[in-house]
Write a structure and sequence with these properties.
Elements (H helix, E strand, L loop, with lengths): L13 H43 L1 H49 L4 H10 E2 L2 E2 L1 H7 L4 H16 L3 H10 L5 H17 L3 H14 L5 H15 L3 H14 L9 H7 L2
Antiparallel strand pairs: 1-2
Amino acid sequence: MATYNKRGYKASKPEELDTNANEFEEVIETSGESTTEEVFNTLDETASKTEDWVAKNQKLVLGVVGAIALVTIGYLLFDKFVAQPKEDKAFSEIFQAQEYFNQALSNTENPDSLFNLALKGGEGKLGFTGVADQYSGTKAGNLANYYAGMSYLNIKDFKNAEKYLLEFSSKDMMLNALALGGLGDAYSETNKVDDAISYYKKAAETNENDFTTPRFLFKAAQLALIANKKEEANKLFTQIKEKYETSKEGLNIDAYIAMTE
């Protein structure tokens, strides 16, 4: 077989290759030892600097640790001896007002007097407004805002109904939906049509179910129709037909849709 050498290239002798390889290995070993030593030296220097900083700022470090501990202990003590007893007291106060409220809902002859008792209190207990004011920040105080708003709504004091319902917030989706719907009712009764429609739609969307959702969609659609917003009314009526046709609001829904076309 023919062979050739490239111009200017000279093959090394075996002895030269061995010598070069040994020298290369020594360089790598030396370099590796040097790099490792530098890394450990750097780590030692960093640790030393950290120790020096801690030693110089020992009072600051202990102060920060102590402050965190005090805050934690303080929170636990506050929760046990202040917050929880206050919460228990608030629920004890609100119980009687809830009884008046429930009685008012079932009383068809003279409910207003019972709603007023629920709001102002009776039998030595605070009403919803008192619990909301004196126990603000507690769960019972927050719940009192809801009941107060609904009570004012029932006795047609729409300004106070708005005030207390706006103060209420909850993770309970059903209560949230009812509170938003209550605000829609308050705005509807005071001819704030756009606000009423907005809150009815929020109430419908907050907790989608077969009971409150078609109810509030229907209220929003009716107001939109009265305000001559036929396109919006049609959309809302159609939503009831498509999703809640078997609900009470869906029984004659085709007639309402026809009125918006």
